[in-house]
Recover the amino acids of this structure.
């Protein structure tokens, strides 16, 4: 496809349906977007000691994130330099050396080839143990922003901080909320598979218009459950009920759009709690940051933030979502919880309860979202009309933040998509 | 032996209520402090500090059932049918005076043209009640609890 043909797919808030359905465009996205951008790999707390590893993928390539002897985090191709076998199949673990289960080649924590059985058999061949291609090659770039580890398959491009730009604010806020100033992955993970193109999911992240329609049943169910004479106070129920905030509230929520397709949205859920443990949390945060700064950090209520194309966080409830496209109409989403170091147990329990309420594959909120995404995917399989609309809020002043009723963040994602796919990035 | 037969009969009745979509009657089997827990990890020790596919009390279950009954629950526009088998019923050691019973289950779920299978272990904590038992906790350990899941709308 020529750059002109690609740009023609996503003009002025109208998006050609093939962008969601054409396997050739999907393959191009993996190479031009996911293999170029900074992709979220994992959190450094998942590999605290040398030899600790965690496996995932970057741009459809299996990788191993591993802590090296010098404390640095490496991200290696999960592939043996001999016959190509995947070396590590466990999700996480710890190893002195990584050993291929096929012919026993071993690799150091920096991916270098360590030992080969019958090495003298390679005499007179092109085999070169110092050639990284015989090891587990490092990804071109790895960077750690306040615990969040990203990697890029591209040797050039903006550094991670430049790439993140103002989207750093949400990661900063999430870290600053921890009384000890640090987060750790804790409390497990949800893995959901969705029958939709990866972008359909991203295009719902700050969509305040869908909530009263898609979630009508769960919103009204939360109200009827709360009205029962035997009802007990429930944080999870409040989380579900908050989707019923209505267009007026959503219209007052700022959505900020940033370069490279990133964005964030203000929160619409109450983030504090009437609980002595929450008061103790605020006190310990104030002890570290000072009362004024602690109040600022807690008042900075962000519902979520998008780091295009692979990562989204809920800063106020300490969770993150990893977007892993599988094929043009199939996407895996992993949801991980973080624990704020130094916070009382209540805070992490709210994180867990929030995750259960909205991110579990059995969440009564999420199941209706998944239905909407799949219906979009199925609808776009038909050839007419040729495009879909993301035009709402087009008249808004670009110098002023959009609201959760605008689709400007979708257009912002496609500006980045265009740059990656048709050239500039 | 009579005890085991009584436990089996109770589990079969519970399974029938869920397959027959008599969700309110099923909820009436629960004690006031009951929990319905489906862990998201094998051997998950606790529901508070680790995510779960479900961890719900009577209030959250009332919310779930109200959605299942709601005409605008879009993901149920095509209705779901289930058929489940409960077996391998074994009495466990009593816990704080409660009866513990372990069993295995398989649930076939049908929605439109899609069919899938859930399988795993039930652990019921039961208290004697008029006419049989009441459920203090139902723990459901799916064999793919930590696997990739599509939407789960049924009560397991």
């Amino acid at each position: 496809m020529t750059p002109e043909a690609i740009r023609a797919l996503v003009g002025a808030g109208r998006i050609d349906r093939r962008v969601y359905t054409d396997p050739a465009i999907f393959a191009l996205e993996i190479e031009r977007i996911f293999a170029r951008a900074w992709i979220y790999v994992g959190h450094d707390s998942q590999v605290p000691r040398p030899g600790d590893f965690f496996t995932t993928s970057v741009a459809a390539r299996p990788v191993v994130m591993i802590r090296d002897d010098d404390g640095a985090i490496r991200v290696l191709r999960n592939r043996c330099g001999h016959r190509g076998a995947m070396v590590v199949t466990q999700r996480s673990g710890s190893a002195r050396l990584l050993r291929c289960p096929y012919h026993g080649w071993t690799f150091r924590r920096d991916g270098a080839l360590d030992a080969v059985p019958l090495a003298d058999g390679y005499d007179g061949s092109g085999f070169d143990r110092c050639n990284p291609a015989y090891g587990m090659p490092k990804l071109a770039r790895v960077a750690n922003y306040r615990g969040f580890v990203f990697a890029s398959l591209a040797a050039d491009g903006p550094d991670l901080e430049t790439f993140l730009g103002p989207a750093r604010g949400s990661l900063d806020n999430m870290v600053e909320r921890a009384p000890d100033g640090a987060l750790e992955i804790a409390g497990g993970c949800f893995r959901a598979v969705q029958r939709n193109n990866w972008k359909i999911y991203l295009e719902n992240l700050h969509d305040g218009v869908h909530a009263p329609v898609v979630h009508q049943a769960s919103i009204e169910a939360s109200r009827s459950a709360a009205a029962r004479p035997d009802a007990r106070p429930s944080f999870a129920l409040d989380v579900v009920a908050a989707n019923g905030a209505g267009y007026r509230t959503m219209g007052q929520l700022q959505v900020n759009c940033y370069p490279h397709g990133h964005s964030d949205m203000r929160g619409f859920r109450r983030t504090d709690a009437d609980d002595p443990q929450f008061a103790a949390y605020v006190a310990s945060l104030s002890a570290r940051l000072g009362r004024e700064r602690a109040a600022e950090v807690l008042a900075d209520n962000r519902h979520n933030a998008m780091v295009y194309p692979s990562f989204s966080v809920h800063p106020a409830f300490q969770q993150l979502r990893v977007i892993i496209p599988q094929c043009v109409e199939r996407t895996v989403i992993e949801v991980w919880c973080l624990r704020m170091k130094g916070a009382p147990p209540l805070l992490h329990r709210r994180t867990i309860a929030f995750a259960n309420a909205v991110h579990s594959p059995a969440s009564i909120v999420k199941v209706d979202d998944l239905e909407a995404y799949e219906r979009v995917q199925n609808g776009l399989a038909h050839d007419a009309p040729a495009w879909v609309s993301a035009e709402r809020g087009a008249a808004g002043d670009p110098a002023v933040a959009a609201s959760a009723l605008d689709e400007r963040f979708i257009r912002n994602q496609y500006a980045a998509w265009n740059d990656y796919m048709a050239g500039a990035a | 032996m009579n005890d085991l037969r009584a436990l089996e009969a109770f589990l079969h009745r519970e399974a029938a209520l869920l397959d027959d979509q008599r969700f309110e009657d099923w909820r009436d089997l629960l004690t006031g402090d009951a929990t319905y827990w489906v862990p998201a990890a094998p051997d998950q020790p606790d529901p508070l500090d680790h995510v779960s596919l479900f961890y719900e009390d009577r209030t959250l279950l009332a919310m779930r059932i109200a959605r299942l009954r709601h005409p605008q629950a879009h993901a149920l526009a095509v209705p779901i049918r289930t058929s489940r088998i409960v077996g391998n019923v074994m009495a466990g050691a009593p816990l704080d005076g409660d009866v513990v019973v372990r069993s295995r289950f398989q649930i076939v779920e049908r929605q439109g043209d899609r069919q899938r299978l859930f399988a795993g272990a039930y652990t019921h904590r039961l208290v004697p009640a008029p006419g049989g038992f009441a459920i203090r906790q139902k723990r459901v350990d799916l064999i793919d609890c930590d696997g990739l899941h599509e939407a789960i709308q049924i009560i397991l």
Observations:
- DSSP finds three helices and six strands in chain B.
- Residues 2-142 of chain B form a domain with the Nuclear Transport Factor 2; Chain: A, fold (CATH 3.10.450.50).
- The longest strand of chain B covers residues 114-129.
- Chain B has a mean pLDDT of 96.
